[in-house]
Fold each of these.
Amino acid sequence: MWGWMLSGGMVEGVPRGSFVFRVRMGDYEVEISGHRREVLETIKELPSLMVDVYKAFEGSKPKTTATLTVKTSPAKEEVAVEKYPRILRVDSCDEAVLRILESDWGKWRPRTVGELKKALKANKLGYPGRTLAGVLLGLVRKRKVRRWKTDAGCVYILAEEDAA
């Protein structure tokens, strides 16, 4: 029904010195972070908290499902290129990735490496997959981009600046 992961190490996008505890129930995940002592005190209350969390998630599930079938005509190659953002000339892969993620397309939802690679290709920027992976890792480490794992693989989105 649920699994958990306890991490005292570095998690992307979480400041050093923070303690993170994640609980997954089916498709939903709850993360508790803060100082180690506070998180551990909260974990002691986990059985009662999980009941509340489960009830909260149950309320958000759809009561009924519907199937919608939409007929579409085969997409032309030009149409596929149009859905990716256009970016101006860039000097590096880092800059290209940041410009793509800053666009409405990049802000709309987190993007996979494959989607980012296609967006770069649509802009006639053919960076190899290993280069793109290295650039994304560097941007995560610099906290310019956030990354997390999904069933589709890792996804990336522009990091929000802290309002200090």
Amino acid sequence: MTSMTTLPSQLSRKPTPAGVLILMVVSYPLFAHVAALSGRPGLIAASIGWLLVLALLPSLRRGSPVAWTAMAAASIGLYAIAGSPAPRLLQFLPPILMIGFMAWVFGTTLRRGRMPLIERIIRTLNGPQDDLNQDIIRYARRLTGVWTALFVVLAVINTTLALCAEPGGLLLSFGLQPAVTLPLELWSLFANVLNYLLVAALFVGEFAFRRRRFPQQPYRGLLDFTGRVASLGAMFRDVNGGASPPCDTVQKAADR
């Protein structure tokens, strides 16, 4: 019998196929939307738990004791509150925190003296060339700015809708009456569905444009590109303060 202590490390032997990873990610918004519409705290808690699985998946597959401990603690906590109203309040936080975090990740790399995140991704996927075409470098900076702007706008809208949602919105939950109220269903439709559709639309649309603008690419099609970007998850969690990394650092990221 395989022991529980060896199972996490065995999970990391093979990378998650890009198609499976995409299905797992796509399932969360739908799960969260259905849970919000149901109003059932247990189902909402389960959707939050599924999000935590997705967030911790790379570390879980590497067998990180910290990740497995965090996942176990979170599961116990969510189970404990599943019968209370708490999940109905917590459900508003993931869209705000996730989108706000992505706005910070992209935006912080646009500061003077730092390498834009899209340029880092290009250098990682293409190899650590020091002589990137200047058109590509300018394009990378502008595209990083576009992603930053999108995430900022989405974070503001998510926060506004969460504050004004009825029933159970953030303001109403703290006994404050918003000047304008919006149906909870509208918040969920935007925060749990349209949010991610807009992100996916920019991702796919930009990929198609880039294939025409810069036809020489080191990957095969959208699925291959998506898988390669997904494999750079650590880059989105640790942007090195946005500082321009040395070539050997970029190469190490490419090797992972």
Amino acid sequence: MTIKPLLPLLLFSSTFCLLAFDDASGGLSSSSGVVLEIDGKKLTLADFEQKHPFSLFQARNSFYQAENKALDDFATEYLLDREAQKEHVTVDELLERHANSVVPKEEPSEDALRLYYEGIESKEPYESMRAGILDHIRQSRILKAKTAYVQSLRSKATVVLSAAPPRANVSLKDTPVRGPANAPVTVVEYADYECPYCQQVRPALDKLETEYKGKVAFAYKDLPLPMHPHAQKAAEAAHCAGAQGKYWEYHDMLFATKKLEIPQLKEDAGALKLDTAAFDKCLDSGEQAETIKAQNAEAQSLQLQGTPSFFINGQFFSGGFTYEQYRGILDGALNASSAPVTEAAKR
């Protein structure tokens, strides 16, 4: 079996902290030719993107997702058509032969149906809903059998989705980066120390940093969300520690302890043996606030909807992932022939 999909674009809107920005609007142009003329002056898409480099990024990303899904559905349709021709049947007859026929014919027991009913929020009595429950179970079994059959066809084929994802040239200026400066893959994370989903995904990221040491660089950008009252000062505190050469130690401590009150931030500085007087002055004066503000403005220009958000060699991923999903994405990026679009710079 040989399957070579492009990096999967996985969106988990229910597993990341939301922050709404104004949506981008307007159409997309497929060329860098003239897109606008004002008083005889011809302007190109490149002229527009020179001043607004990220304005169309999310629109292009949405189109990429839709295009990828449509192409993936078409691949399934093609494989079913091809198999049906081989067996000299219609697609419906093919699915009846290899999917529907394997669906269990016996109905669930009454106890199982009543247990299913108890999990439904409904005021209707069991007797009036029994037939609908049975039909739903049958349809679920048919869908599961069809999915398994389609997967068996795909496992025997080489399927390559060649739609290229849009990539953003995310700057790493004033951004802490952990890993080799010449790494072939750079992961840029926009996160919030108070966001529960950022905290949940941290163990997977820590494990990946160890596993891919020397191969992948990890950058962290601050996007403190307004509903998290402690996130801004926590972000500033990490950069204050960075001014004394211990950004990552402090960053890791924040995620480990989840203690974000200002007195606790100052205690952490002492635990790391920083110059506490200099740290306290940095934190109290808001010395690093402009750095956080600049990264927040960048996130808005990219129209990020929440945290955690990631750019892996410029390709956008939002939400939380499992360790296995991360591995698949990073392995795909490492195997890709395209050069990284972000410059890796250590701090």
